[in-house]
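User: Quick one: structure for sequence A, then sequence B.

Assistant: Sequence A:
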Amino acid sequence: MVQGETMPIPPIYFIRHGETDWNAEMRYQGQRDIPLNIKGEGQARRNGAKLAEILPNPQGTDLYCSPMTRTRQTFALMMQEAGWTDTPWANSVVFEDKLIEFSFGDWEGWTLEEIKEREPTQYWAREEDKWATKMPNGESYQMLAERIGSWFYKLDKPTVVVAHGGVLRIVRYFLEKVPEQDAPLLKTPQDKIYFWSGDEARWI
C-alpha cells in the first residue's frame, strides 16, 4: 500500500512522546533510548487528561505504543492521568516494533550544526532530497514510509497511538496526502494530540 490508497481510515488519536533532554538540546535522537525529562512528563500528563476528555469510553479502540523507553513512559503517564491504569483496555496495548522512531544512523546524538560541520557533503545531499536520501547507516523517509505503511494500512478500528515525531510525519503524509518533499518538514508538537476524525485532521 502507498499514499493515495482510497480505503477509509478510521479515527486516529496520535500522541507523540514528551520532551527529552536531547529534544531540548536539538540533538538527533532516532533510535537511541533517551528518557523523558520533567517537561516531557508534564506533556504526557496533559495529553492523557485531554485524551480522556475527547475519548471518554475507549473500549473498542485499538491501542498501540512504540516499545522505546520514552514512549513507554509517555504511555504510562498518559494512562495514569486519564484514570485508565490497570484497566482491561490499557492492558490490551500492543508494543509495536514497526513504530520505533526513524533511524538517524551515525548522526544520532549530533546536533544539526555538528552534522553540517563534520559531514557537510552528506548533509547537503540530504537537504536536496530529504525524502529519498538515507542518512549514514540510517533510514530515509521513503524507507520509513514503507515500514509504517505495513502497519498503518491494516488499521480497521479507532486507534490510539503513542509514538514518535518521524512516525507522525509519515502518518500525516498518508492521511493528508502531503507531497513527499514536504513530509519531512511537518510539525510534530509534543504537547498536543493529533486527531484524525476519519475525514479531516486537527490538533487537540
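Sequence B:
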Amino acid sequence: MIGHKFMFSTGIENSYPTIVGPDGRTVRIDQMEKCRHYQNMELDFHLCKDTCIDFLRWGPPYYKTHTAPGQYDWSYSDEALAKMRALGITPIVDLCHFGVPDWLGNFQNPDFPKHFAEYARAFAERYPDLDLYTPVNEIFITAMFSAQYGWWNERLSSDRAFVTAIKHLCQANVLAMHAILQVQPNATFIQSESSEYFHPIRPEVQGLANFLNQKRFLALDLTYGYPIRVVMFEYLLENGMTREEIRWFEQNQVKARCVMGTDYYATNEHLVMPNGTWQAAGDIFGYYVIAHQYYNRYKLPMMHTETNRAHDSDDWLWRQWANLHRLKQDGVPILGFTWYSLTHQMDWHVALREEQNHVHPVGLFDLDRNILPVGKAYKRLIQQWGPVLDDERYGTIYR
C-alpha cells in the first residue's frame, strides 16, 4: 500500500452534476470550467509545487472523457498527467465526482456500475503507473443530493430513489476497484466520504437522530462489506434492495486495499429539529470526535481528504490540523491531510443547486491565482510538520 511519506494534499475541484436552470433546461455545472482550471492547468500544477504540495486530488471530467460505451477521450488526461509527472506531483485519481455522462442519464440507471467499471479499467490500462484512486467521490453526499434532496442529476426525493442511487454508486465503486486491481495490483483506494453526525435538539427526535446516525455509514458499510445492522437492513429491503444485493457487497469488498478518507466541514454536523428536518450545527464535536467514530467502526488507515472554510480560514486550518494531530497521538493511523481546494470555487454556497456564478472563497489561491493567507499558512504547516511526520520515530518520540 502507501509508502511512509505523509500525504499533504489539495484538490482541483472537479464537480460536474447536472441541475435544472431557470429556463427549465438541464445545465451541467463543471467546476473545472467555472474555476478556469482548463485554461490554467499548467499554472495550477506549478502552484501546488510552489506551496510544497506533492499529492493532488485530481480527476478528469468523467462526462467528457467517457464519450460512449467503450469510447474515451483522453486528451485532457494525457496532457494533465504529463505535466504532473514532470513536476513530481502524485495524483489521487478521482474518477467520478457527482455526475455521469449524458448518455448514462443518472444514478438511477442500473447499467451505470458496469459501464463505470469498464471506464476505470480503461483508465488504469492507459496510465498503469498510477496507484492512488478515489473511484467514486462522496457516495453518501452524491446519493443524498441527487435522490433524497432532489437537487442534482435525477433530482428525486424519496427513500427508494436514495437506496437505488447508493446501491448503484457503491456497486460502481467496488466493481471499479476490482477492475483497477486487475491492471494495477498495487493500487490503493482512498475513499473520500463525508463524516457526518446528527444531534437531536429535543428528546422526541432522538429516535430519528439515531436512524440518521446509522444511515450516514451506509456508503462505507456497503463498500467495505460491513455487517448491516437490523434497522438499516430493514430500511434497504423496504426501499427496493434485495438480500442477495446486500450479500454481494460482503462477498466482493476489497477492504484490505483501502484507506478511509473522511471529509469534514462545519456543515457536517446537523441539528435534528422537532419537525423532522435538520440544519447545520457547526463544529460541535469536531473532526477529532467524529473521525474516531468512523475509525472505531472500520479500523482502517485514515486520511483527512477534504476541509475548507470561507471565513476565518487560517483559524479553521489550524483547528483541523490540531484535531488530526491529536488523532495521530492517540495511535490512529492517519496518512494524510487535505485543504480542498487549490483555488476558490463557484456556487458552493448554494451546494451547486443554482447557477449564480458566485465565488465561494475557500481556496489556497483566488481565481486569479494569487496566493491567500491560508495558502501561506498551509505552506508553513507543511514545511514545519512534514519532516516530523516523515520521521520513522514519530510514533514513539512525539506522543
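The chain is about 40% helix and 20% strand. The mean pLDDT is 96.

User: Thanks, that's what I needed.
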